[in-house]
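tl;dr need the bound structure. longer version: we got a ligand (flavin-adenine dinucleotide) that a collaborator sent over and nobodys looked at where it sits. i said id run it. heres the input, straight from their email, havent touched it
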Amino acid sequence: GPSVLWFRRDLRLGDNPALAHAAEDGRDVLALFVLDDHLLGPSGAARRDVLFRSLTALDDQLGGRLMVVKGDPVAAVPAVAKAVGADAVHVSEDYGPYGRRRDDAVAEKVDLVRTGSPYAVSPGRIVKDDGEGFKVFTPFYRRWQDHGWRGPADTSASSASWIDPDDVSGGRKRVTIPTENTHADVEAGEKAALSSWADFRDDRASGYDDERDRPDKDSTSRMSVHLKYGTIHPRTMLADLASLKNDGSEAYRRELCFRDFYADILFRRPDSARENYDKRFDAIELDSGPHADELFQAWCDGKTGFPIVDAGMRQLVSENWMHNRVRMIVASFLVKDLHLPWWRGARFFLQHLMDGDIASNQHGWQWTAGTGTDASPYFRVFNPTTQGEKFDPNGDYVRRWVPELRGVDGKAVHALKNDRPEEYPEPIVDHKHEREEALRRFGALKS
Ligand code: FAD
């Protein structure tokens, strides 16, 4: 009988092992996507926009044969499978907390076949000698490289004979793919993913290790949004990187491993999507109340009076993306200068980021807050001024995003004194003072 290929966050036809499996023995395949309010609601308009345009691109590749339905997948997927008379429903495995619960519930009603995942090495596979998972990145990275990953799977639109959804009667009503009116100018879909990857690989990958920390330069790949929806698989990228063999490709491979690492951490500790990974921090003193809310609002609006922080927050809200170095700076500021809980900032990020991803976001936040996996001890407090001077050395990034400061030349833009324009806010806190306060709270926790 036929099979169903249920797409979730692997919205591509190339390098898709679940597609190969679904089409085995020449079976007819129905391509399905379920619009699930549980995921769409908290996504934010920019992320929904990319999703919808990725779906439209997929539907085009399939000659209009992507069946899109609405509802709770636990009811909708079995209903569609029954309507086409499918023996099995094929997916690429989801390792997030919600995805796992949903898939287990679907698997009680249909034969759910999970092949591959959005990661080079699926969560749970990389273990220490004693069989436990890693809590520290560097040894995970070593193991990950030793473990290795498969080469890209050879699949395409012609790997299957696709069932026309209009020929399916009963089950669920097919809906048109929604649209979202955002200004996002990022191209979506598999073709766009492959071509922006090729541009980066050919032009910028070799300088990536030297330039990646510079928000003023267009030096990173911006592939996060494509990886989020799986319009490209990291296997495809890793295979290319292996043949480049330069310091840039080495550094890039390490970043892709970070993505696998955080997915592994979240898989082992689903509670860490909401709670401190390091439980000792449950006792730390955090601020709340009207004044804390005002500070939070200033942070959201990019009006803290700290130029690099404000530039980052305005890039986030306007472009729905932020440079990694600046994500760390604004996150550190929220936690250590404003003494607010990391999850408040994480939630705001997820509402705005086009690449918003529960594993990378929550653990990027926890890492910066010092409540997560290793490396950034709580007592290491970023100084927004020196961070700005170091990573945006000419001040170009700040001037791009903070128009009030366009009249200030060079790196003076990071350490405003008498040249602080009237229309630009005064610093909402005193960094030196708040740094001491953060250390005091940390000290209280230890004793
Ligand atoms: P590149 O520098 O070109 O990196 C290539 C790829 O490697 C990225 O696309 C990404 O998939 C992966 N990668 C790079 N750095 C990291 C990292 N630190 N952790 C995990 N994966 C990484 N990334 C997300 O994809 N979604 C998020 O919601 C997210 N939230 C973050 C929140 C905070 C507070 C911090 C500090 C980091 C967050 N990151 C997140 C990680 C990182 O900032 C972005 O992946 C990166 O900026 C995306 O831009 P790029 O594709 O140009 O990155």
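gonna send this back to them w/ a short note. The pocket of flavin-adenine dinucleotide is lined by residues 212, 220-224, 227-228, 255-256, 258-259, 262, 324, 327-328, 331, 349, 353, 355-357, 360-361, 364-365, 368 (CB under 6 Å).
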